[in-house]
Amino acid sequence: MTVVAEFKYKNGAVTASIELPISESISELSHHIIEEENLQPYEEDDLLNALEDFIQFKKENLNDKLSNEALNLTLCINNDEDIIRYWEKQFKEETVSYGDKSGSSDSELFSTAYHKLVHSGIALDTMLQVEQSYAHDVVNMIQQRDDQIEKLTKQQEESLNKKLETHQGSLSSEEINNLDQMYIEQQSFTLVKWISKIDTLKETQRREYRDWVMKLLEEHQRTITLQSSL
């Protein structure tokens, strides 16, 4: 899906078309926009922060949509309030704890460290490789999710067909509806679990990457200090 987004920052604004989900790291996307729009180097930090906020906003919207779809799948079969409360509880328990707990000061420190390393040129290739590796891991997990849901759907279809053949049409409408409801609950629960699992992976990657960048900058500055003292 292609969206046109306007990013406003201290010194102006830029409009860009972005393909979602993004196939590259946010830093790479920021670099491409800077080149296309001929922005000044001092505007990079503002644009990167605006991009991070935009991607996070879109991710939260997608998670909300998927969770609502999971609930609606159950509701379309039965309006039982117990089922509604059950899925709301499952989603909240599995996803709420994965919100961004880093403060603005941490983000500012990371942004500063990141751009110092980028402009130094020392670790740029390594940083891009790590970011691409993280993106690859997320894509793989999304594929695993899709494969599991597809496998579950086939298993449910086979199970239903087997029961229908065994009972030779003697199943009542209520029994068939109960089976359908059970299958939909399984699908919904699986979807919610994968939403949480993918969010957890992304948060883990984000923390690991921040820690790694900060340590990398410390080592770089320590090396410069030692060299200057010789």
From TrEMBL:
<dbReference type="InterPro" id="IPR019311">
    <property type="entry name" value="Fy-3"/>
</dbReference>
<dbReference type="Pfam" id="PF10154">
    <property type="entry name" value="Fy-3"/>
</dbReference>
<protein>
    <submittedName>
        <fullName>Protein C12orf4-like isoform X3</fullName>
    </submittedName>
</protein>
<dbReference type="GO" id="GO:0005737">
    <property type="term" value="C:cytoplasm"/>
</dbReference>
